[in-house]
Amino acid sequence: MIHIDKIHTPFVGRKRGIWRWFIFLLITTPAFVLAISTHIFGSLYDQALLSAATRIYSAKDSTVSALPSLFILPDSDNATCQPYKNIVFIKTGKTGGSTMSSIINRFGLKYNLVAAVNPDRGAFISEDETAEHYIIKKYNCSDFPGYNIMASHICYNRPAMEEVVPNAKYVTIVRSPYAHFKSAFYFSGRDQSYPNSSNPFRDYLKYIYDTYGAHGHGTVKLYLRKFRLVLTPDDELMKKQLQRLNRELDLVMLTEYYDESLLLLKKLMCWDFDDIVYFPMKVHHEYQPPITKDMEHIIKKLSRLDIEFYEYFNNTFWDKVENYDGDFKADLEEFRRRKNRVTRKCPTGNETSYCELLHLDALQSRNRLAQENAIWNC
Questions:
Q1: Of the four listed, 7, 17, 49, 115, which is most buried by Cβ atoms within 10 Å?
Q2: In whole angstroms, how far apart are CA 336 and each of 6, 145, 283, 331, 351?
Q3: 150 φ, ψ to 5°?
Q4: Mean pLDDT lowest for which of 11-20, 197-206, 216-225?
Q5: What is the SS3 assignment for the chain?
């Protein structure tokens, strides 16, 4: 028996072919249109993003905050608060502080703020002989508005800082003492004293420990010196010092959680995402032998008080994350998405004026801000 539905005729073949093409186009056309639209509007979005950024960072008007957001979609925080403009950043060495300083200086350029800097534009701000005042560049115009920013290497002196930048938010950054000690060792060039060593830092630690032994316990105090804490074996007294400092500082950032730290800064200061976008500064990629367990044991003895300092503020950091006003995880993902988009569009710094600013390091951005501030010399 012959089944009619098995018979192939030219007409039936063409008819089925037409229906197949119709179904194929019906299924694939939305995806094709979506892909094309995403490409076109994505490019337009990127162009608009950089254009808005350029307008913001090229503007000279102090009302620049009214200009469009860099990311077009405004941050929700801006509907309920205004950007806080006075900030003191106690910069610490080998912690990512240069990147943070460049972020703050760029914010200063955006809002025409005044930075307190070394008179000779050096990296450090020192105190005078009385240790009651900082030596900073002075301006002599009668209508000088005062300083908004301190973001240099500086030792913590709260009364002297309040004299320079009143009503400021106080921020600093710390790093695990294990990695911090190692980074400072290589940065200082001390590894050159061990030219034939396969692990210079290990040999240096062994030398320190063998030389000073028990007397060397707690002698490495990078953070204690910076914040003028009293070196003490009394755990209770040390705890009280840390509690006092915690009350005085608005945010202690962690190098190991840089993006998370910047998100807390953004919330604290009511800044925009574009204010905290960054390119890492002074990041070195040379190979350095890892820290062994034996090395950790020695560092723990030498840096006992710094470790106690770090662990205390590590806990306060995560308390702030837990009490974050909003969806921290979602905001962090959004920040990283926006940061990645902008950094892809500014690979060299020559694309727009905003891209140029994004690539300025701490020294370059500070000098640019000092040039802008020169208007207050009459």
A1: 115
A2: 59, 35, 19, 9, 21
A3: -130, 120
A4: 11-20
A5: CCCHHHCCCHHHHHHHHHHHHHHHHHHHHHHHHHHHHHHHHHHHHHHHHHHHHHHHHHCCCCCHHHCCCCCCCCCHHHHCCCCCCCEEEEECCCCCHHHHHHHHHHHHHHCCCCECCCCCCCCECCECCCCCCECCCCCCCCCCCCCCEECCECCCCHHHHHHHCCCCEEEEEECCHHHHHHHHHHHCCHHHHCCCCCCHHHHHHHHHHHHHHHHHCCCCCHHHHHCCCCCCCCHHHHHHHHHHHHHHCCEEEEHHHHHHHHHHHHHHHCCCHHHHCCCCCCCCCCCCCCCCHHHHHHHHHHCHHHHHHHHHHHHHHHHHHHCCCCCHHHHHHHHHHHHHHHHHHCCCCCCCHHHHHHCCCHHHHHHHHHHHHHHHCC
Residue type, 29: T
- Measured in degrees and rounded to the nearest 5, phi and psi for residue 229 equal -85, 145
Q: What is the mean pLDDT of residues 102-121?
A: 95
pLDDT band at 17 (very low <50, low <70, confident <90, very high): low
Q: Which amino acid belongs to residue 64? A: V
Residue 77 has pLDDT above 80, yes or no: no
| pTM score, whole prediction | 0.80
